[in-house]
Amino acid sequence: MKFIFSCVDKKDHAHVRAENRPAHLEYLNQFSDHIVVAGPTLGADYESMTGSLLILEFDDDTAAQEFALNDPYNKAGLFEQVTITPWKQALPK
Description:
The radius of gyration is 13 Å and the shape is globular. The protein contains 3 helices and 4 strands; from the N terminus they run βαββααβ. A 4-stranded antiparallel β-sheet has the order 2-3-1-4, covered by helices on one side. The protein is an alpha+beta fold and 93 residues long.
């Protein structure tokens, strides 16, 4: 099952994102075979990072939640909100 992870950064936490980015990327590399897409959401300036959007494939809700809980960004308190939604891919086939 594929899951959408929609994460919104806390306001004025760009420094937390920057400080934890290497650990976050290393963590994601451990799940490279699960990743469909992953990347930061951007602000109106098209440069500042405001959150994260990831689509990953896991066997169940528990595995998806465990992934989110153990993300270094989450552990560092970067996110104001994290939403995990099951997703069915329609296109491309």
